[in-house]
């Protein structure tokens, strides 16, 4: 009787272990097949109790409005990956129509357009795309989008100032340029 209960407990715990192994296998496969552009760096950050790693992506655009900046994103995965996208947050306060001052990122593949067929490479390319093709139509930072939509010259000036750690519209932005 005692062995029967132990066997039942083992069977109940196996599906959870299999799910975690699948998550790690998928992340491992994503990381192994990753082809990072030269303007990105990826760092694996492991939690002490969590077998699923979080990642930090550093993006240093070499063209466009954000050229010369260095932006760090945190990518958090949960047990539902790849059925659910990773949670992505910009760790720098930056002046960008599609990134709010709390670091939330507006990127369609991280929300309504996510499918399990997408992978880490897709997320990285999407984040790079944010710096190259700014979307002023569906913004998180409405003031930045308004400036972008009305005057590209004023927007470029505001981006430069913000990247150097200035205050714009009473919001202080992080210095993200290299000295």
TrEMBL record:
Q: Which GO terms describe its molecular function?
A: ATP binding; NEDD8 conjugating enzyme activity
Q: This protein is called what? A: NEDD8-conjugating enzyme UBC12
Q: What is the lineage of its organism?
A: Eukaryota, Fungi, Dikarya, Ascomycota, Saccharomycotina
Instruction: Give the organism, scientific name.
Output: Zygosaccharomyces mellis
Q: Which InterPro entries match?
A: UBC, UBQ-conjugating_AS, UBQ-conjugating_enzyme/RWD
Q: Which UniProt keywords apply?
A: ATP-binding, Nucleotide-binding, Transferase, Ubl conjugation pathway
The chemistry this enzyme catalyses reads:
[E1 NEDD8-activating enzyme]-S-[NEDD8 protein]-yl-L-cysteine + [E2 NEDD8-conjugating enzyme]-L-cysteine = [E1 NEDD8-activating enzyme]-L-cysteine + [E2 NEDD8-conjugating enzyme]-S-[NEDD8-protein]-yl-L-cysteine
- What is the enzyme's class at the highest EC level? transferase
Pathway participation: Protein modification; protein neddylation
Q: What is its EC number?
A: 2.3.2.34
| Protein family per UniProt | Belongs to the ubiquitin-conjugating enzyme family.
- Gene assigned in the entry: UBC12
The record's CDD domains line, in alphabetical order, gives: UBCc_UBE2F_UBE2M
Q: Which PROSITE patterns match?
A: UBC_1, UBC_2
Entries under SMART domains matching the protein: UBCc
Q: What Pfam families does the record tag this protein with?
A: UQ_con (PF00179)
Q: Catalytic site residues?
A: 106
UBC core domain residues are: 22-168
